Amino acid sequence: MSASDPSAHLLETFPNPHPKRDYLIEHHVHEFTSLCPKTGQPDFATIVIRSVATERCVELRSLKLYLQSYRNRGIFYEDVTNVILDDLVRCLAPRWMQVQSTWTARGGIHSVITAEHGRRS
Amino acid sequence: MSASDPSAHLLETFPNPHPKRDYLIEHHVHEFTSLCPKTGQPDFATIVIRSVATERCVELRSLKLYLQSYRNRGIFYEDVTNVILDDLVRCLAPRWMQVQSTWTARGGIHSVITAEHGRRS
Amino acid sequence: MSASDPSAHLLETFPNPHPKRDYLIEHHVHEFTSLCPKTGQPDFATIVIRSVATERCVELRSLKLYLQSYRNRGIFYEDVTNVILDDLVRCLAPRWMQVQSTWTARGGIHSVITAEHGRRS
Amino acid sequence: MSASDPSAHLLETFPNPHPKRDYLIEHHVHEFTSLCPKTGQPDFATIVIRSVATERCVELRSLKLYLQSYRNRGIFYEDVTNVILDDLVRCLAPRWMQVQSTWTARGGIHSVITAEHGRRS
Amino acid sequence: MSASDPSAHLLETFPNPHPKRDYLIEHHVHEFTSLCPKTGQPDFATIVIRSVATERCVELRSLKLYLQSYRNRGIFYEDVTNVILDDLVRCLAPRWMQVQSTWTARGGIHSVITAEHGRRS
Amino acid sequence: MSASDPSAHLLETFPNPHPKRDYLIEHHVHEFTSLCPKTGQPDFATIVIRSVATERCVELRSLKLYLQSYRNRGIFYEDVTNVILDDLVRCLAPRWMQVQSTWTARGGIHSVITAEHGRRS
Amino acid sequence: MSASDPSAHLLETFPNPHPKRDYLIEHHVHEFTSLCPKTGQPDFATIVIRSVATERCVELRSLKLYLQSYRNRGIFYEDVTNVILDDLVRCLAPRWMQVQSTWTARGGIHSVITAEHGRRS
Amino acid sequence: MSASDPSAHLLETFPNPHPKRDYLIEHHVHEFTSLCPKTGQPDFATIVIRSVATERCVELRSLKLYLQSYRNRGIFYEDVTNVILDDLVRCLAPRWMQVQSTWTARGGIHSVITAEHGRRS
Amino acid sequence: MSASDPSAHLLETFPNPHPKRDYLIEHHVHEFTSLCPKTGQPDFATIVIRSVATERCVELRSLKLYLQSYRNRGIFYEDVTNVILDDLVRCLAPRWMQVQSTWTARGGIHSVITAEHGRRS
Amino acid sequence: MSASDPSAHLLETFPNPHPKRDYLIEHHVHEFTSLCPKTGQPDFATIVIRSVATERCVELRSLKLYLQSYRNRGIFYEDVTNVILDDLVRCLAPRWMQVQSTWTARGGIHSVITAEHGRRS
Q: Residue C36 is inside which H or E element, if any?
C-alpha cells in the first residue's frame, strides 16, 4: 500500500450507523480534476467509489474537499486511482472497496482505471 | 437494529390478504426529502422498497406520511436508508426486504445506498 | 387461496387447442382501473398475465369484462393482484401462472406487485 | 398434434442445401392478419419462426401464401400459433422449431403466444 | 460440404501474420445482393463472417469481389450462407468460422440464417 | 511473437505506482490511421488496449506517438493488431493484455480484430 | 354553449392571486376515463387544459373530482371535450381556454379532439 | 404586483458586471418544494428563471436560500410562480424576466405555470 | 466593455486566411473550470464561442491556455462569460461573436449565460 | 479567393446531367485528416460539402484523392475549410456551395467551421 497522501487528513468520518448490516454505499464524483505530471495540463475524470463499510463511513463534504486537493497536483491516472483507494482504505477499513476513474480524451485517447481492495461478499 | 424512529408510529398496516403465497411488493418513492445533518441544507432522493411480506402489508398513505416526517430532520444518507429498513422490518416482519436510496448530486457527487434484511428466496 | 371473487363467473374459457404442448401465453392489460379501499379514489394499473395452460384458455373478451368489473370496487393493490391470480387459477388450472400489476403514482409513490402460482418449467 | 390445416397444402419446400450441418433459420413475418372467432373483427400479429432444419426448408413465397390463407378465417391466438407450428413440423420435420406470435392490442389488451417443437441443441 | 462455387477462385489469401496466437477476426459485409431463385427478384443482406485463423487470412478486396459474384445469381438464403461458409473453410482452413446472413424483408417477411464450422475455443 | 516494430522505441514507460495490486487499465484510442498494404489507401480504426500491469505502465503521450508512427505505413488489419500487442507486451510484460481494433468500412465491409496475451485472472 | 353538466357544481375556484398579469396555466390530466355511449365500454384519455385566467383559478382537487364524475357516464369524445370546456368557461370566465383530449386506441384508431374559447393574446 | 414576500430579504444581489450589454441569464432550479395550501401535503417543482438584467444580478446561494424558504409554506402553484417573479423583479429591476414552474403529478394531474415581466427584445 | 483581463495576453492570433468571406467559426470548450467568488469552491462549465472573423483568428492552443488561466480564480458566471467575450472581441475584432456558458448544478440549480457582440448577418 | 491549392489538379468533373434544374448535392466525408501547423500532430474531421451545381459535378474518386492530399500537410481548420471551398468553386462554378468541417476534440475543445459561396435560393 502506498504512503499516505498529504491531503488524507482532510477525510472525515462518522460512525457507521448500522455496522451489523453489510450494505452497499456508492459515491459518483462527476467533477474530479488534477494535472498531468508530464505536461502540467489539466486532466478531468469521473470517479466512482463503491464500498461495504465496517465501523466508519466517509463524510461527503470532507470527501469532496479531499478530492479537490488534487486540483493543482501532477499525478498519473493509475497512481491517483490507487492512492484514493489506499487513503480511503486506511481511513475507513472497509470490508470491500472499488475505485474506478474514467478520464476525458487526451490526444484522441481516453482511459479507464479500476482498482479494488478486499472481497465484496 | 437501530432504535425505533419517533415517526414509526405513523406506519399503518393491513393484513396481508394472501399470506400463504410468497409474492413481490415494490414501492418506488419519487419525492423523498430530508436535511443534511451537517449543513441543514435539503437533500432529495428516490427510495425503492422491495419486499416479500408475511402477515402484514404497509398501507401506502401511511408510508407516504411516515416518509414525509423526514422532511425537516437532519440525517445521513446511510442512516436514513437503514432506519427506514429497520422501521419497516419491525412493523411488518417481512420474509425479505431491500431499501435503496438514490440521492441528487451535492458538490458534484451523487450517492446510492442499498440495504437488505432477510433472504429473498 | 382466497374466496372466489363475485365477478369470477364472467370468465369464459375455451378448450386449449393444443393441450399436449407446454407453450407460453402472455396477456398485457393496459387499461385496468379500480378504487382505493381507503379513499375511494381511482387507481390505474397495467396488468400482465403470463401462463402455461393445461386444458383451458381464457377467452379474451371475457377477461376484459372480468377485469372491468373492478372499475368501481375498492381493493388494495396486493389483494387485487392475488385475487386475479386465484380466480384465473381456479378457472383455468394452469401449470404455471404469473400476474404482475404496475400502478400509476399516488402521492409520488408508484408500486409493482408480482404473484405466481405453480412452477414454469 | 392438431389435424392438418386445409391450407397446409400451400406450403412448398426445397431440399435443405446443407443437411449435414445444424444451422439456424429465422423468418420474421411482419404482416399476419386473421379474424377473431367470436366477433369476426380483424386481428394483427407479428410471427417469428425459428428452426434447425433436417432434409427440407420452407420456400418463402409459399410460406407467405400459406400465412395469407388465415386472412378471412376466425381462429384463436393460441390455436393459430400452434397450428402454424404443427403444419410446419409435419411439412419440414425440423430438428427444432419455435413459433412466436405478438398481437396488437384489442380493448386495451395485447397478447404474446410462444410454442416450440423438439430441442434446439 | 457443398461443391466448390465457381467464383471461389476469386478468393485470395495472405499468410496469417501471427499464426501462433488464436485471435478473433470479424468482417461485416453491409452490401450483399443476390437474386431469388424462384422470382429473379433482387435480395439484399448483411453478412457477418467471424473466424479464428490457422495459416491463412482472406484478403479483403478479394472477399468483396467474391461476394459481388453472387449479384446476378439465383440462390436460396440457406444455400448461399452455407456455400460462403464452405468456400471460405476450403480456402482458409480456419480453426473456427461462423457465417450469419440477415435479409431485408420480402412480402413482409425478413430472415436470418446462421451457420458454423469447427469450435471456437 | 513477431519481430519488434521499428517504432517500438517510441514507447516510454513509468514504474507501475501500485505493483502489488492487480488492477485494470483501459486505453481507448479513437483516431488510429494506417495505409492499406495493397492499395496504399488510408485505413481508420478505433483501438482499445486493456491490461493488468506488472512493473511498468505505458506513458500516454508516448503511446500516442507510437501509434501515430503507423500513419504512413502499409500494414494488414490482422498484422497491426498483433504487432501492437507484441510491442506492448515486450515493453511492459503485463500479466494480461488485450488489443481490439475496429475498422471503418471499405467497399461496404468493416472488420474487428481481437488479440490477447496471458490470462486476465 | 351546452347546458351545464350536473357535476359542474363540483368545480371550486380560488381568486386569481395575480389578476393584473396575463400568464399561462396548463393542467395535464393523465388518468381520464369515461364510457362509450354506444357499447358501454370504458374509454381512456389524457386531457390538457390551457388557460389565461381573469378573476378566478380552478382548485386542482375539485378539478380532479369533477373529471372523475365522468367515470361511469356514456359520452362521445367530441362531446366530453366541449362540455369540459363549457363548464370551465362558465365557472372561470377565462380570457382564453383550450381543452385537448387524446384517447387510447380502439380497434386500431386513436383520436385527438381540441376546442378553444376566446383569444390567447 | 403582489406584496413583497417575507423571505424576499434573503435575496442578495451583486452589480451586473456588464450592464451595457443585453445578455440572457437562465437559472434552472431542479429541487423546489412547497406545501399545498388546502391539504398541507408537499408539492415538488422545477422552476426556470430567464432574464435580461439592468444594474443587478441575483447571487445564486441567496436565490437557493430564498427558494428554500417556501419549503414549509402553503401556497398555490399560480401564486408562488407570480410571487417569485414579483420578488425578483422588485429586487433586480430586470429589463425582462420569465418564471416557469413545472409541478410533479398530483392525482394524475401535472401543471405548468408561466409568467413574464417586461419585453425580451 | 470591461477592463482587459490579466491573462488576455495569453491569447495568440493568426491572420484570418480568408478575410473576404464571412464564415462561421465555433469552438466548444468542454472542460472549463473556475472558482466561486463567494465560497472558493470549484465551478465547472461548457463554453461555446461562435464568431464571424474579420482580420484575425484565435489560435486554439492559446485559447486553451487563456481559458485554463481561470482555473484558480474566483469569478461570477455572468462576469466570466462577458469577460471572455470582451477579451476575445478586443483581440480579434470579430464582425459578430457569441459566448454561451452552461454550468453544472450547484445546490440543485444549473445556469446558462449567453452574451453577444455585433450582429451576425 | 485564395490561390489554387497544388493538389487541386486532382479534382475531376463530369457534366451535370440536369443543369436546368436546381437540386441539392451533399457529400459527407467521414475520414478527413491533416496535421496541425503549429505542433505537427494529426487532426481529424468530418467534412460536409453541400452544393447546387451549374454545368459540372465533381467525380467522387477524384474528390477522395484530393482530400487525401491533405493527410501530411500542416494547415489551420479555418484555412483548409476555405481552401477546399475555393478549389471546388473554381473547378465547378456552383450556384451555391457550403463546406462545413467538424473537428475531433483537442485539449477538451472541439471546433466547427462553416463557409459558403453564392446564395442557395
A: none
**Chain A residue with minimal CA distance to I68?**
A42
- How many beta carbons lie within 10 A of that of residue E120, not counting itself? 13
pLDDT beneath 70: ranges in chain F? 1, 3, 121
Sign of CA dihedral C87, C91, C97, C101: negative
The Cα–Cα gap between A65 and F9 comes to 41
- In sequence order, the β-bridge partners of residue B42 are B35
D vs H contact (3+ beta-carbon pairs below 8 A): no
**Residue F57 near residue F11 (C-beta atoms within 8 A):** no
Chain C partners within 8 Å of B27 (Cβ): 109-111
Answer whether G touches H (≥3 Cβ pairs < 8 Å).
Answer: yes
Per DSSP, the residues of chain A read -PPPPGGGGG--EEE-S-TTS--EEEEEEEEEEEE-TTT--EEEEEEEEEEE-SSEEE-HHHHHHHHHTTTT-B--HHHHHHHHHHHHHHHH--SEEEEEEEEPPBTTEEEEEEEEEE---
List the catalytic residue out of E5, E43, E86, E87: E43
Name the one residue in this structure whose C-alpha cell is 425459428: D50
Predicted-complex ipTM score:
0.91
Q: What are phi and psi of C7, to 5 degrees?
A: -85, 0
Q: How far is I80 from chain H (nearest CA, A)?
A: 9
Sequence-separated (6 or more) residues with CB below 8 Å from residue C29: C46, C47, C48, C49, C63, C64, C67, D108, D109
Whether residue F43 lies in the annotated active site: yes
How far apart CA F37 and CA F29 sit, in angstroms, is 22
DSSP symbols for H79-106: HHHHHHHHHHHHHH--SEEEEEEEEPPB
Q: pLDDT tens digits, residue range J60-112?
A: 999 999 999 999 999 999 999 999 999 999 999 999 999 999 999 998 999 99
Distance from CA of D1 to the nearest CA of E (A): 26
Contact map slice: D 24-53 vs G, CB within 8 A: 41, 44
**CA pair distance G64, I20, nearest whole angstrom:** 64
